[in-house]
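Dear support,

I submitted the protein below through the web form. The confirmation email said the job was done, but the results page showed an empty box. After a refresh the structure appeared. I'm attaching both so you can tell me whether what I see now is the final result or a partial one.
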Amino acid sequence: MDLIAAIKQGDELSFEQAYISCRGKVYGYFLKKTKSEEEAKDLLQTTFLKLWQYRHSLSEHYSLDQHLFNIARTVFIDAIRKQSRSFRATAVSDDTSQVEDPAGDNADERDINRRLHKLLEKMPAVQKKAFVLNRLQGYSYKEIATHLSISVKAVDNHIAKAVRQLKKYLHLIILLLCSHFFK
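What the results page shows now:
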């Protein structure tokens, strides 16, 4: 019986065989992406957990490697989004009424945050909220639409307007993002 078909039917020995034969490649993929052994191990476990959890949806038209790396890519993207949300949430509060300085006493970063806060305060409330949720906290348009009880198209319009307003201050946004991602 094909390994994919066996896993699909819930054969635990086939799943174990898949884990043993593919864990090195998947671990290597995550280690290269994260540069962290612990994080790579966690993501490896999550990948195989999802392979087992969603085994019924596996297609026998794809190889085990194809399935695993599709899952691994999704797991990695989810991990980045989760890290981005938690990091951004510490940088800018939900309503932007209080801008925090996660670096402590970094005067340049405080100045950038203060300027961004001033620019955001000039925006209409819904536009500001949509922009903050998407660009600073990493929420999807659909999540924002649900949160704000507006359509996805309205979210798109609000964010586009906010970006146009901020475009003349692009250097500020670049400095803000660089200061967070290149520390």
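Response: this is the final, complete result; the empty box was a page-load delay. The two ends are 51 Å apart (CA to CA).
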